[in-house]
Amino acid sequence: MNSYIGRYTKSDPRLKHLIGFKRKRDRNLALFSIFGCIFVYFAVYFSEEREKNRRHNSIEKDIERERWRAQELGKEVHHDDGFAEKYIEQEQQKRKDPSAYESIWKTLTVKKEAETELLQTKSKRKNKEDSKKVE
Description:
Elements (H helix, E strand, L loop, with lengths): L1 H7 L4 H7 L4 H49 L10 H14 L3 H35 L1
Keywords: Membrane, Transmembrane, Transmembrane helix
């Protein structure tokens, strides 16, 4: 009975050796280090999210401010390419639906594939020209 009591009161040296902490201070140091790392990770993550949201809000406010200035100057006809509306709509949709990132990723990969194909065709043409020059 004493061996069970010793294990559950954490005074059994064999169990302490198995776990790896011979002193309570060592165990506390390890646990507080782990919790500290987790706390710092989450603090940095939420700080980055807050900064990202602040930047997006700042861009939206700048766009609205430019529209207001244009109206004040009497330039009520929009002469832009619609980038502002597309950007605001895209950002709002991203906040609502995370799958919007997938569509953006797909368009980026399609563009990247087109660029690689273009580079491959250019390199093939260059190789043909080089082979003709050698002959």
